[in-house]
Amino acid sequence: ADTQFPLRDGILHAEDIPLPELADRYGTPLYIYSRAALHDAWHRYARAIAGHDALICYGVKANSNLAVLHEFQQLGAGFDIVSGGELERILAAGADPRLVVFSGVGKQGWEIRKALAAGIKCFNVESAAELERLADIARELGVRAPVSLRVNPDVDARTHPYISTGLKENKFGVDIRQAPELYRQALQHPGLEIVGVDCHIGSQITQIAPYLDALDKLLDLIDVLAADGIALRHLDLGGGLGIRYTDENPPDPAELLTPVFAALAARGMGHLQLILEPGRSLVGNAGVLLTRIEYLKRTEARNFAIVDAAMNDLMRPALYEAWHGVVPVAPRTGTPIETYDIVGPICESGDWLARGRALPLEQGDLLAIQSAGAYAFSMSSQYNTRPRAAEVLVDGQNSWLIRPRETLQELYAQERIPHRA
Ligand code: LLP
Predict the structure, then answer these.
(1) What gap in Å lies between CA 132 and CA 137, rounded to an integer?
(2) CA-to-CA dists, residue 19 to 6, 163, 368, 373, angstroms
(3) How close is the Cα of 279 to the center of ligand 1, in Å?
(4) Binding site annotation covers 316?
(5) Which GO BP terms apply (predicted)?
């Protein structure tokens, strides 16, 4: 899967750099991203939309390092943001606000103001109450807010329940049956300009069918709106395309988009701009987490490889029981293969990165945890007063430190001890 992380002369590389060199230079735990892999993932989408009116808005939450955002900005991406903080980040990375959509169920007043001032492309509104707040703020500022309703099409994305968002019991979006009424209300508001419709049904989706089901429902809605004289400019299908962590075979962007464009044309909606909000599929397999084995520990029940990365660095296993590939950076031949749980030093039983892996390991070895480009660093914390890991971007033989390891002082620099009189 990770063609930009090849095994050469018995050593795992990031593009042209042996990983042990990066470990020596930057220390571990270390996030390493391949620029070529980011570009490859982007171009798979770019090829799939070629010749169509479509915009890829990178889902910033997957990996929001400025250097990563800058790569996508340079490639022509728009951005899907979910907070005022993400808006600041993408602007700092050089993004054009006119290519930005703003999703999320809990947009605060200051975030709405900030996005209106920046002049973003669209607010993906998720409730009647939010629509009202947006309209009020826009009117107060004397502008019109571009809006799209995020509808909940009630389809099953057939993924992990924590990352499935398109079922009617989820907190996300507006019930698709209530959408026409909300659109009619929006039409009356001088502070609002209706521009589109949106959905996002989940993440790590490995089939096309749920997307096409959702699309059908959105197209039905668009017909209903048209009958009411409400014309849209775009249709946003959200993100969610999966990646291979182990043996998944997720569709390529083209496998998804060919039938999507065909359905739009067949329904006479070829004039609509198509927006997508991919996150994971643009960055997930462009990164690894490099970690070093501190200790091997054998107990009656299990063998543990205790490494210097932990759940604070990569919380997906603890949170979703997610599976990440673990490969030795310099695979040994003379060492017996044993079954290990790969765990961190944090004081929680949930602090594991992988379980039951048969590997030939020795203390001090480096391991690469794969598919760590998405929802990895961006979900990291400083739990147990552990500095967040450094991040490096590799391009051929060059590497850039795109975020230094945090210092211990930084971890508590903002804290204050009250001095009572
Ligand atoms: N658009 C919206 C409105 C979203 O909520 C998300 C992700 C995306 C786009 C991007 O989805 P993607 O293409 O990356 O699947 N932390 C979880 C994933 C949470 C996804 C949240 N929403 C994980 O580690 O698997």
Answers:
(1) 9
(2) 10, 32, 9, 16
(3) 6
(4) yes
(5) lysine biosynthetic process via diaminopimelate
Atom in ligand 1 nearest the alpha carbon of residue 124 = 3
Is there a binding annotation on residue 240? yes
Centre of ligand 1 to C-alpha 111, Å, is 20
Query: Has 122 been annotated as catalytic?
Result: no
Tens-digit pLDDT profile for residues 314-364 = 999 999 999 999 999 999 999 999 999 999 999 999 999 999 999 999 999
Q: Is the CB–ligand 1 distance for residue 35 below 6 Å?
A: no
Q: Could you give the C-alpha distances from 138 to 123, 129, 142, 145, 151, in angstroms and in order?
A: 12, 14, 6, 6, 22
Give the C-alpha separation, 403 to 33, whole Å: 12
**Whole-angstrom distance, CA of residue 17 vs CA of residue 11:** 10
Does 328 sit behind a cis peptide bond, omega within 30 degrees of 0 on the bond before it? no
Please work out whether the CB of residue 45 comes within 6 Å of at least one atom of ligand 1.
no
Count of CB atoms situated within 10 Å of the CB of 7: 14
> Tokens at residue 198, please?
């949106």
Check: CB of residue 377 under 8 Å from CB of residue 388: yes
279 marked as binding residue: yes
Side chain identity, residue 36? A
Return mean pLDDT, the chain.
96
Residue 119 assigned to a binding site: no
Q: How far is the CA of 352 from the centre of ligand 1 (A)?
A: 22
* pLDDT class of 162 with cuts at 50, 70, 90: low
Element (H, E) at 162: none
Place of tokens 């039905």: 220
pTM of the model: 0.97
Question: Under DSSP, is residue 386 helix (H, G, I), strand (E, B) or coil?
Answer: coil
For ligand 1, mutation pick of 125, 162, 203 (most atoms within 8 Å of CB): 203
Enumerate domains of the chain plus CATH numbers. 7-33+284-412 (2.40.37.10), 104-276 (3.20.20.10)
A 10 A CB-CB count for 326 gives 22
Complex ipTM tops 0.95? yes
Name, in order, each residue with C-beta under 8 angstroms of 160's C-beta and a sequence gap of 6 or more.
Answer: 203, 204, 320
Number of the ligand 1 atom closest to the C-alpha atom of 160? 25
